[in-house]
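ARCHIVE CARD
Drawer: 12
Card no.: 0347
Subject: one protein chain, sequence and derived structure
Cross-reference: see card 0346
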Amino acid sequence: MPTDNTPRLPSRIVTDGLDRAPHRAFLRAMGHDERAIAQPFAGIVSTGASVTPCSMSLAPQAAAAREGLAGAGVTPFEFSTITVADSMSMNHGGMRYSLVSREIIADSLDAVARAHAYDGVIGFAACDKTLPGLMMGMVRLNRPAVFVYGGAALPGRWRGRDIGIVDVYEGVGQVYAGTMTEAELTELERAGVPTVGSCAGQFTANTMAMAAEAMGLALPGTAMMPAVASERLALAREAGRTLARLIRAGGPCPRELVTRHSLANAAMTVAATGGSTNAALHLPAIAHEAGIAFTLDDIAAIFDRTPLLADLKPGGRFWARDLHMAGGVPVVLRALLEAGLLYPDCPTVTGRTIGEVAAAAPPPDGEVVRSAAAALAPTGGVVVLRGSLAPDGALLKVAGLKRVRHEGPARVFEGEEAAVAAVRARAYQPGDVLVIRGEGPKGGPGMREMLGVTALLYGQGMGEQVALLTDGRFSGATRGLCIGHVGPEAAAGGPIALIRDGDIVAIDGQACTLDLKVDPAVLEERRRAWIPAEPADLPPTLAKYRRLVGPADRGAVTH
């Protein structure tokens, strides 16, 4: 039986020797000949599905990667994993499964690749949790791997201006406020998402795609390219050829790419672009798979020294498409390199260092991306708050905010639904701090994302008049004075569990503080009387997740 000369191939465990005649018979049943069986094996894993527009561009890209692998002498094997679409699960109990799906995706990639002894994997993802899920699985597996993002949708056009899905969410709030008609909302709805692809702004999917490039797991220039761009097929073929080269060279493997310095580079790109607060949940989780403790404290230090350089939605003016036209992620990396912030020696799947990728990029255009000397703000678009209300930290996206300080009375809600009902009814006052608790990783369980309630507030014209505070998450599309990831969460007995209506909450995004102005003796009395809530009748998936999941500041991982 001929064998490939490449050393250390895991796939030979299923192809070589007398005992493997049954395995080879199955391979022949798949249409593989002697040559294909002798070649290295690569898994092509995709979250492609018709459950969300985000993932509908992935199938042709995965097919192109198959061509690239086969042409480079590697035998491809395609398999799928799940997508839980935030678009479809938002604003109801289904959102509890969104973050859970990240763990399922990582587990499923690891399970299939190890069980079938693939020599490397190439992964295609598009919707929010699918990106970190595949990256986590790749790092855990630690065989040659290339990550490919499916790309963002193009913005829509409505009444002479570009729009995205956030405009539709906020339109709902405007209808409740009486400033938009239902007929106008229907027009907006029809224009909001005109193509397949992920959300068009610097929300979670685009943020994590950018992080993949910054960590060297993805080919340069791929993150911001629109999902409908035909060039994506050529890039997917190149990704296949790249994986073939990595397999034959024996690496670099993901744990050689995901290091403290490359994680710092990824966190810098998040801060420099006003990216999603969810990156502070996913980067620690990816680091965890590499055996690296990269916590919210590490991220806070990086955010604090990184200027805001890109003027991107939702806080800014431009879309992912615009950043692609300005040169993509490499332009941001170049701006960070020229500012002396980037760690340039980190390797990438291309064989070049990230510094070489950055140096070859065009200079910042001064509009979409600025140099550090002309930064939009001296520190990044996301800050970590700490104080008596958040000893383990909380996250606030300050990019685009007109004000970053607020002090007001708490209005406490047990769960998202109660808050949404109050906001729809306008049962709150300017200056209030709306507190939604019991939505953390354990408390939800699942740490739901709350774009619906934040968009309602903005649609009602109150996005800058109140603050919103939760131990759950916010969407990358969220804007306003919205603080998420408050830790410890309520289910763990954190201070957020002890707030009562009327307590004064003080938020300072400049000083990075979050405090509850209640006498410590009063809080201690409340703590002694506090009884943790126990969710009843949880479905098995959520019950298992609740038992296993850790705190948000360490990535909400389950092992």
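Annotation on reverse: The radius of gyration is 24 Å. The chain is about 40% helix and 15% strand.
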